[in-house]
Amino acid sequence: MGSRDLDAESKLEEITVLPFGDNGINPSHLIANSLPFSFTADDLPNIKIIRASPIPVRYRTVRDVIPRLLFPQPQQKVAPTRSYPPSISASPFEDLLATEFTAEDKPRFDFVLHIGMAAPREYFTMETCAHRDRYIGKDEAGESMEGDTLWRDEYKAPEILQPGFDAEDVWRRWRADLEGVDVRPSSDAGRYLCDFIYYTSLVEYWRKDPKGMAPVMFLHVPGGTKDFDVEMGRKVALGLIGAMVGSVRQR
Hints:
By secondary structure, the protein is of the alpha/beta class. Helices cover 32% and strands 15% of the residues.
């Protein structure tokens, strides 16, 4: 669905949020897959959640898929949908890409939440920025982005991009909703696929309007995969979604 007016006077009743799992059956995907299709919170509209299947951990796939996923063009054509295990009750991102839209350059989602794993961490982080350069770590296809200059030379994009939220306000709301849970802001998403997919999303909004609102956030989760870990991750993700939406609507 297309974007809507998100200012404080909006009569909005539903907001679409897109979580991503980033690498198959790992904590990020398990948490994303556990989210409800909709939920409500105090003083917020009904929030609709579209749970997409994992984006492959490949730089070139991310750069190809994300722009088309966020800003669809009319009558997009894509390859047939891949099959997924029965445990994955999510919308394959290829199906989302195949949806036809009539309005060009309009964002498909009102908010975007990426979810990725940061296994060494034992706490949850909301990433407050993403980086343009120095992606030298190899992806699952054995490729890196070392020497790539598309964003720097062709797009003339900034070295660092930030989401359009008031990060301090979002963190305050998020923390208040999760008493006793270790949640933190972070300015280091890792210079790997998590950082890369985050910048890829942010730069697409920046290209449309350098001074506009980029409603994108990245949540890093610990590496636990037990039921308790997934349930905690679900609670944390829903809390962050509510904090994002609440912060924007109450500006």
